[in-house]
């Protein structure tokens, strides 16, 4: 399911709400410092707003991210043949010791006779 404007809007609202909860928590801490009160816990409304914002953000991210793939490795590899498993270009090595050996042999006068 593609990400629509509604899903992106939900995600934006979630982030704005979480930012507001963080700002409210910081404002509460500064209020406690000004009145020389001890910090014991956040007020319940800030805590609830943070949890709701977190769930809204999780829902928005799940909708915007798109379809998930299966965790099983065999799910992606079922339609491949055995030859494609052996042919992996990232394992190709072109800078092997054969080039160094041939340079040493040509410098020492041990060139191949044809």
UniProtKB/TrEMBL annotation:
Listed under GO cellular component are: early endosome membrane; EMC complex; Golgi membrane; plasma membrane
Question: What is the residue range of the signal peptide feature?
Answer: none
InterPro entries reported for this sequence: MMgT
Q: Which Pfam families match?
A: MMgT
Top-level taxon in the UniProt lineage: Eukaryota
Q: How does the protein associate with the membrane?
A: Multi-pass membrane protein
Which terms does the record give in the GO molecular function aspect? inorganic cation transmembrane transporter activity
> In which family does this protein belong, per the annotation?
Belongs to the membrane magnesium transporter (TC 1.A.67) family.
Q: State the protein's purpose.
A: Part of the endoplasmic reticulum membrane protein complex (EMC) that enables the energy-independent insertion into endoplasmic reticulum membranes of newly synthesized membrane proteins. May be involved in Mg(2+) transport.
- Protein name according to UniProt: Membrane magnesium transporter
- What is the scientific name of the source organism? Phaedon cochleariae (Mustard beetle)
């Amino acid at each position: 399911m593609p990400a629509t404007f509604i899903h992106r809007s939900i995600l934006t609202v979630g982030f704005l709400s979480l930012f507001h909860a963080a700002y409210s928590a910081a404002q509460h801490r500064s209020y406690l410092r000004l009145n020389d009160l001890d910090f014991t816990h956040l007020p319940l409304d800030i805590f609830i707003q943070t949890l709701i914002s977190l769930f809204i953000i999780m829902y928005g991210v799940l909708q915007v991210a798109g379809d998930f793939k299966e965790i099983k490795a065999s799910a992606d590899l079922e339609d491949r043949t055995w030859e494609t498993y052996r042919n992996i270009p990232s394992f190709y090595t072109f800078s092997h010791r054969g080039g160094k050996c041939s340079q040493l042999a040509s410098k020492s006068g041990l060139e191949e006779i044809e």
